[in-house]
Amino acid sequence: MEPAVVWDRALLGYDLGGDHPFNPVRLELTIRLATELGVLDGVSLLVPEPASETELGRVHAVEYLEAVKQAPLAGWDVGHGLGTTDNPVFSDMHDASALVVGSTLLAAREIAAGRARRAVNIAGGLHHAMPDRAAGFCVYNDCAVAISWLLDHGFDRIAYVDTDVHHGDGVQAAFYDDPRVLTISLHQHPFTLWPGTGYSGETGGPGAQGTAVNIPLPPRTGDAGWLRAFHAVVPSLLSGFRPQILVTQCGVDSHEEDPLADLSLSVDGHRRIYAALRELAGDHADGRWLAVGGGGYQLIRVVPRSWTHLLATVLDRDLKPATPLPPGWVDKVREAAPRAELPVEMTDGADTTFSPWGDGDNDPVDIAIRDTRRAVFPSHGLDPDDPRD
After folding, report:
1. CA-CA distance, 270 to 291, in Å (whole number)?
2. What is the pTM of this model?
């Protein structure tokens, strides 16, 4: 059973315009890089269709859908978070946004129908969109719509893990009171970064306590600290929750070169995260893994390499870190950005070793780990202070 890859050039239509940081060129460069490295050899790319209004209505209010459709005609600042600096109005905004949702829904359907165990959509991951407003470059929330659809098509235990540098607030909000969905977000501390949510004390609504999990990390956390926090929290919770599918938002704005945030991960750290997610899906979700993209604003040096590693990991075609960047890809980038300083390999040369939590360190990352474990582990019958749990 081959993994599914959803892609079509029409997804480049989700374009917020001008010098907006959420530039679709990052998607184009990723697909081109993955193609030239042979990652997509023999893979039949699945072409999505836009999500219907009924499907979008799983998460979004009818009046909001109408506002999105009318926004290009109405002009600047039309309410609902539209027409702002973060979420400028653009032509065909409804159709382009619905296509992103449709692409993640297509990936979900492939898994639900048993045609694939894994599926990936790098154009997805618009995790900030709320029921009645756009937020954080996100018009419609493809992650939440896909999870809602899965809940109605044979799944009643879904785990969502968000590795974007920003809190996965829209997905958390959509399922905050639903014990069938475990949302886990690792992100830069909300005191230091938009959207200002995602504290460890946000743990779920009545009847769903412990199913919202937040690990707020201090600025400048690098690979070792991030991986230490991830492994101190996520595997234990997935083991207890026993999800039928793992949905992951794989934003790469946690990289040290990203211009919009202050974590310090490397491409090598990202690659190790994807490998861990694949392993966890195999251990705890019968191999079912739906991966989407997300944030990432170092458009040339970081996003294409990191998400090419994501595609390779989903497809079991892992690339060696020292794999050289193909000359054709480099030449194409230099045509468009002749002054860009390009890496030469699929690695940053970073050391991603880390010490497991409980080995005696006591730094700000450990404080975040402790606070999160104490907030949610008791709800799952786990001892927050025992490193074995």
Report:
1. 13
2. 0.97
| Partners of 264 in the β-ladder | 222
Strand locations in 28-179 (E): 118-121, 158-162
Q: Exposed (0-12), middle (13-18) or buried (19+): which is 369, by Cβ within 10 Å?
A: buried
- Encoded amino acid at 274, one letter: Y
Residues in the chain: 389
Other beta carbons within 10 Å of 153 = 12
What does the alpha-carbon distance between residue 126 and residue 105 come to, in Å, rounded to a whole number?
13
Q: Which two tokens stand for residue 382?
A: 């786990």
- Are 242 and 154 in contact by the 8 Å Cβ rule? The answer is no
3-state secondary structure at position 11? helix
Active-site residue identified among 60, 94, 127, 128 = 128
Say whether 187 is catalytic. no
Give the residue among 111, 234, 249, 95 at the shortest CA–CA distance from 170.
249
The backbone torsions φ and ψ at residue 364, rounded to the nearest 5 degrees and listed phi first, read: -60, -35
Read off the tokens for 10.
């029409």
Per residue in 200-234, pLDDT tens? Answer: 999 999 999 999 999 999 999 999 999 999 999 99
Task: Name residue 39's amino acid.
Answer: V
Q: What residues have CB less than 8 Å from 348, skipping those under 6 apart?
A: 266, 267, 268
Q: In what order do the strands lie in the sheet with 158-162?
A: 4-5, 118-121, 289-292, 245-249, 158-162, 181-188, 212-217
CA distance 70 to 144: 23
Measured CA to CA in angstroms, residue 261 lies from 111, 251, 252, 295, 364 at distances of: 33, 12, 11, 10, 18
140-155 confidence digits (pLDDT tens):
999 999 999 999 999 9
Whether 309 contacts 327, CB under 8 Å: no
Q: Quick one: which of 181, 239, 187 has its CA closest to 211?
A: 181
Dist CA 229 CA 338 (whole Å): 39
